[in-house]
Amino acid sequence: MELPDLGQHCGWSTCSRLDFLPFHCHWCGGVFCQDHGPLDSHHCPQRHERDVKVPVCPLCQLPCPVRRDLGHTPDFAVNAHIDRDCQSDKATRQRRPKPVDPLVCVRAKCKKKELVPLTCDECRRPVCLTHRHPEDHACPGSRAGLAQLTSAAASRRATKPVSAIKSMSVGRTSTNVRSLSVPSVHSSRQLSEDEALARALQASLNEGSPSVPPMDQTEIDRLTALSLQESLNTSSGSRHPTATQSSSGQSKGCSLS
What does the alpha-carbon distance between residue 91 and residue 128 come to, in Å, rounded to a whole number? Predict the structure, then answer.
């Protein structure tokens, strides 16, 4: 609902907006809205006759040039000077970075402060009870430790299969040696240790090679019996020449007497 009795219409020819707080130009006496209130906006005919003054900084009393060609206002120029170039004590204190509270949590956007100081064991920075764990406040120390643990685990996984294969092969060979050498020693005292070791190695090779099938217990017993028979034959053959030699010696002795 419009109230034509309140406010005034803008004096710009293409606007005529009803403004309840109109702007009165002190140079040409016209009434304009907020958009056409500046002199350049309504093309004031007396804008070149105005007394243009350079604003002065209220803190350091230095002039602040205004870029009117860019549409800057005196207030904008003074504020920019205070924020960047002013050398007064108040302005320098305002531009000085605020000191970091040693009790505030280092987590981003967390301003919680504990009554009792609490620091992280890894990075030695202040934390709160909510973000006390290393993974909660992006602890750099925990990242380095995690990287070391990951690399160590990877190296262990790389070396574990090789050591396992070696231990399995050594254990299999020792088991075969024990299973084949002990019965042979107990069954016959004539078998030497070299023969037992050779048979154990042959059995382990037969078991490890996929093309040659492993020998069963019957075959092992048969080979053991054959080896025992050969050893007995050898021992009996070696005893006969000794007996013959002893008998010939006795006969020679008798003939000499």
Answer: 34
Residue 23, number of CB atoms within 10 A of its CB? 19
Total Cβ atoms within 10 A of residue 127: 24
pLDDT tens digits for range 202-256: 776 666 544 445 556 677 777 777 877 777 777 666 555 544 444 444 444 444 4
The H helix count followed by the E strand count for the chain is 5, 4
Taking a C-beta distance cutoff of 8 angstroms, is the pair 118, 105 a contact? Answer: no
Q: Helix, strand, or coil here: 116?
A: coil
Range of the domain at 2: 1-51
- 83 and 37 both lie in a single domain: no
Q: Are residues 6 and 36 in the same domain?
A: yes
- Closest to 82 measured CA to CA, from 65, 63, 61, 57: 57
